[in-house]
Design a protein that fits this description.
The complex is a heterodimer. Chain A is built from 29 helices and 11 strands. By secondary structure, chain A is α+β, with helices and mostly antiparallel strands. In chain A, strands 7, 8, 9, 10 and 11 form a 5-stranded antiparallel sheet that branches. Chain A has a 4-stranded antiparallel sheet with strand order 3-4-2-5, with helices on both faces. In chain A, strand 9 and strand 10 form a beta hairpin. By secondary structure, chain B is an alpha+beta fold. Chain B has a single domain, classed as Clam (outer membrane lipoprotein receptor (LolB), chain A), CATH 2.50.20. Chain B is about 25% helix and about 45% strand. In chain B, strand 2 and strand 3 form a beta hairpin. Chain B is globular and about 45 Å long. Classes of the chains: A alpha+beta, B alpha+beta. At the A-B interface, helix 6 and helix 7 of A face helix 1, strand 5, strand 6 and helix 3 of B.
Chain lengths: ~775, ~190
Amino acid sequence: MRSPGAEIWKHSLPWFVLIAVAALVLAWRLQLSFDLSLFLPRSNDLTQKILLKQMASGPGSRFILIGIEGDDSAGLAMASDRLKDSLAADPEFLQVQNGLPPDEEASIPPVIVDHRFVLADLDYSEDALRQALESRLQDLAFAGGPQLIELIAEDPFLSVLDILQQLTPVEYIGDRWFSADGQAVLMAETRSAATDISAQTQAIEKIKSAFALLGPASPLQLELTGFGAFGVELQRTIRSEATWRSITATLMIMLVVAVAYRRTRMVLLAAIPLGVGALFGLAVVALAFHEVHGITLAFGFTLLGIAIDYPLHLFSHARLAPPATAMERIWPTVRIGALSTLMAYVAIMLAGSKGLAQLGLFTAGGLVAAIAVTRYWLPHLVRQTNTRPPASPAASGRAQLLILPAIIVLLGSLAAASVVSSGDLWEDSLASLSPVPAERLLQDQQLRSALGAADLQYQLVLQDSDLESLLSRNEQLESRLAEAKSAGVLAGWQSVSALLPSRELQQLRRDRIPEQLELERRLDAAAKNLPFHERAFDPFLAAAGKARTAQALTPADYRGTPFAAWLDAHLFQVDEVWVSLTFLVNPDPAALGKRVASWAPGPVLVDVSQSSDGLLRAFRNGTIRAVSIAALLMVGLLLLDRHRPRRILWLALTVAAALAVTIACVTLMHEKLTVIHLIGLLLVFGLGLDYALFFSRDESAAERGCTRHALLACSASTVLAFGILGGSSIPLLKNLGVTVAIGSAASFLLAWAGRSRATRDLSRAAA
Amino acid sequence: MFLKPAQLAALAVVSWLGTGAMAHALELSEVLERTRVSPPGRVAFRETRYNPLLEEPMEFTGYLEYPRAGQLRKVVESPFQESMLVDGDTIELVRAGRTQRVSLRNRKSILRMLQSIESLLAGNISVLEETFEHELSGTEDKWRLRLTPTAKSLAKQLDQLTVCGGLGTIDKIRFDMQNGEWQHLEIIHTASEP
């Protein structure tokens, strides 16, 4: 006979190989990301896709908003100017603004100067030229400087200034930005994308050190918000929270196991399915996705904590029988419970955001690995504890299940929840999905509104499979907007046509430029009796001659210029379709909506706040659909497993009652349910079914004791682990943790109470 | 419409100078002390201006108004109508019935020029010395002050600023720019002056 050591080694070898493979996969593929947009929902609706694209990379996503407080307004204004000056020179930032007009020495970008003849409608008639020259004379009577002299010589129409003005429809009135509560506000646009967290971290460090230089002992306080700033913050929070929360959760679980089984070996063995599960889950995610989000990595492990239940069932039941036999006995129940939990995780996977898909895949993969380890490896490692005499399975009795208490609890909780939420259970704001705390989002909103920039709430969306046709339609839209503007329906707009006219319009404008000699003749005639030098406008003539035969202006010409980001915000591709966004300044939505409807088929007027609510509703409905399908599948599974109809009814009612109690508690604490609560409820569903399945098993009194022992340990570890998650400052995780902790406790109590009377009845009958 | 009004505003501030008591020693502090002005007041001017785009210099006439401290208005009457009000660090320009406001807060060289000129008016010699090197020559009743900018941002545009005056008066101011531009402002002292 081989030694027990050799036996264990023989059964463990394949597992060691698998663990090594998973570790290799991780070493090869694992790449971390802290991209917040990963947790935005996916959508099939084009308008919503546009919205999401904007949130992830739209105008303003690169903005870091800087708030300064702690002094009177004069002191804050000075700090604002000094901070702006010290940051403006930094190549990390594309622009730093504090509300003051652009610097006089800022030069006009060459791409605009070079293409001014196709970017503006110029009138080359003698009259128009004469008018322009007279205006320039007045300008020169009043101002000067080499820059202006040079500009007028090249561009007597000063068309470049008109072009630039169209890009910023809001006039700088020259006041520094202050928020409603008196903070001085600055905006720094980073060169790097908001999702590039290491570059964003650098940018934020630069702002902080520039701020520190304002005065070492100054009473000023700095506040930073924005997509990038939140990403950096989240990274820090996840790192610090992940460390201590996972250590605490692990210690808690170890404590529960140690108290329940009183052996160090058990604590170590219980860790094996969890460890292997986490490793495999991560390997699966690394294979399926290019990057693994910090949240998946840091908190997926806590979600996977549910897998601790399986070894605990085994350990408790191994007190009555040899581990392999105990495993055989509980396997049907463990299997159906694991399958239902797996379905809940798959539902998370399909809930509609890439981040949640990762989280779902990680936990589902981890769960399968953990259950396989518990089933096929762990029984070889556990020694029978044999603390009680073995009982024969023949002594098992049919479980007596109470239906009425579950019905009462179910109805009572639902009534309570509907009273608390006053009928409307759901909160559909995108903020509820964000891993960023709500008060930080509010601060961001306050700082942003101080900017008084183009209102991003209303926009006109045009789409076309062909870029040229889109640009032409956008030009038609502009002329209609001009009419609407003169009717007072809106104050202005920002559209791609300002930087990128269609090729057709460009050619039209080029063709309008007269031949060199003819232009020279008209210019001479226009300048008659004006004191201009004969050759003063030679640079203009040369540029016009060049422009007549120049190549068409394309988006590529803006690459690497300060306008690239602007263009990208107003023109982009979604699924092979070109989309242009026209941002509106102070529109009257109702009046404009009416006009836009008459322009059909044409632009769509989008109210971003409404769209985002719609997005969330769609996301929530999708999740509810996934859950309903999962629930039906579970009932189907139970039927296939040939359970009694009364047991299935009891299971359904007990689980439903536990869910209702959880909903009632969560609405009491949070008033409304968010999509994240819904995902928490999914987990509760899986857990609750597992507990109810075990409590409704037909088993002997001794087995029943083991079951109760195991479930108490399971529930205690879940409540503690998720309770720790519930203390997180990241709303997404807090909501999940609180929901699952409450749900686990409610599921245990309800399943236990629904069965406890039956146990008594059975023992009396036996007597 | 392009505006760069502050330079003219600066000019206008410089040129707003009243008559003062006679002095005997040619010290900058004393010259400034004597030319100090207090509002309200009004004076006519004749301006000649040249830049490399022009065949010959342009000429304008109009008046300068000093309604209250911190405010100054320059009104061109010929060859066209235009009014410009400098109020603190904002300029309001009225041309062809249209009013435009421009902030000078971020126009450092212009602001610096305005500040130095205000200090010229106020007789604040220390601020002036921060921005310019000065050279005073001539006699009490016919003096000439040459100011060369030391501040980089200003020196990039302005070559030198020359102020000429008589007994307690400023008569002429001339800006010479780096690119060959110049402006010449002549104050017309009449009996209507305060």
